[in-house]
Q: What sequence folds into this?
């Protein structure tokens, strides 16, 4: 299958640069997975698409304030660090600018918040650095900035510290938000629970690789990035019990789909709890096994996220829905509107 098959025309002005005034004020395109029939609603209507006994799956990862600034001790040159993931007690993998001027042994002063030393340069161009502070998470909270996606071209503001984070974020580790969850408020989650909907929480720490473009011609040749996940026993029990009782599992975002499809027990629709790394790559003709429905934002042309969406319905139906979204001037990507495939 060709990557170009997942291309579509997207006017640049439809790429949302700011969140909606309130989380739940986004629009939601609802698509019937079987017929392809679509309609557009306000996000607050999502409660109407759940029934008692259904299970909503959410990703409770928390976005790190992963951008740090400092100066190189030897020269005073300005350095930007993008913290990616922890690889040791005080060792973290980072992207550094300007990396070519930071060989192993370089020390970067974080302007009153400690310093780090470059210890290694990896084959993919990233670096391993050693921080001299006791708590790197605390350092990022004090000195770091939320890393907005590259297609948001403005400078981050204080508002982004709150809005580029779900209301249920609790486990720090992501460098990008699980954006389908940004629409939920505590009030809507409360309405769902009052209706008898169960909420299963898992964790997938979204990595910078989620923005990596597909640079090959054939989908099968793409090498997927790896991300860390946790599927707790309680969540697995809720999901499995939901199916046993004849109800639906509704995923919030592609990240939860990747975890469930990683953890599915072969030959069943049940999942096994666990912790690990996943590089699962989902694209047609694969069909999603565990989820019965999916809430997701609108994704980039030719992206692995759009390919994953097409495991829920025929690609032609998905692309027709995307055309409808464009024609109706819906907002795309992280701060944009959303789509419910039911």
A:
């Amino acid at each position: 299958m060709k990557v170009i098959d997942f291309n579509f025309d997207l006017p640049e002005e439809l790429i949302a640069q700011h969140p909606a005034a309130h989380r739940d004020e986004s629009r939601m395109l609802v698509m019937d997975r079987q017929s392809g029939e679509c309609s557009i609603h306000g996000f607050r209507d999502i409660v109407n698409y759940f029934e008692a006994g259904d299970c909503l799956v959410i990703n409770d990862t928390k976005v790190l304030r992963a951008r740090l600034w400092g100066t190189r001790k030897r020269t005073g040159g300005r350095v930007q660090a993008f913290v990616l993931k922890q690889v040791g007690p005080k060792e973290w993998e980072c992207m550094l600018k300007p990396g070519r001027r930071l060989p192993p042994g370089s020390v970067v002063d974080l302007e009153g918040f400690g310093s780090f030393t470059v210890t290694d340069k990896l084959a993919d161009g990233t670096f391993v650095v050693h921080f001299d502070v006791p708590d790197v998470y605390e350092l990022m909270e004090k000195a770091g900035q939320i890393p907005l996606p590259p297609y948001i071209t403005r400078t981050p503001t204080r508002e982004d510290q709150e809005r580029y984070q779900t209301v249920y974020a609790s486990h720090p580790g992501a460098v990008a938000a699980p954006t389908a969850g940004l629409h939920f408020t505590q009030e809507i989650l409360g309405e769902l629970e009052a209706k008898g909907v169960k909420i299963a929480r898992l964790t997938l720490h979204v990595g910078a690789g989620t923005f990596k473009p597909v640079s090959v011609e054939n989908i099968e040749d793409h090498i997927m990035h790896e991300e860390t996940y946790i599927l707790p026993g309680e969540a697995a029990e809720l999901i499995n019990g939901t199916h046993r009782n004849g109800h639906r599992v509704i995923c919030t975002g592609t990240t939860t789909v990747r975890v469930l499809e990683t953890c599915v027990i072969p030959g069943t629709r049940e999942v096994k709890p666990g912790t690990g790394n996943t590089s699962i790559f989902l694209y047609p003709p694969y069909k999603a096994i565990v989820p019965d429905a999916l809430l997701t934002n609108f994704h980039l042309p030719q992206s692995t996220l759009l390919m994953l969406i097409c495991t829920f319905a025929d690609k032609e139906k998905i692309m027709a829905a995307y055309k409808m979204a464009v024609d109706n001037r819906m907002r795309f990507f992280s701060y944009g509107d959303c789509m419910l495939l039911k």
Observations:
- The chain has a mean pLDDT of 96.
- The helical segments are 136-143, 158-163, 186-194, 233-244, 253-263, 304-309, 315-327.
- Residues 67-143 form a domain with the Thrombin, subunit H fold (CATH 2.40.10.240).
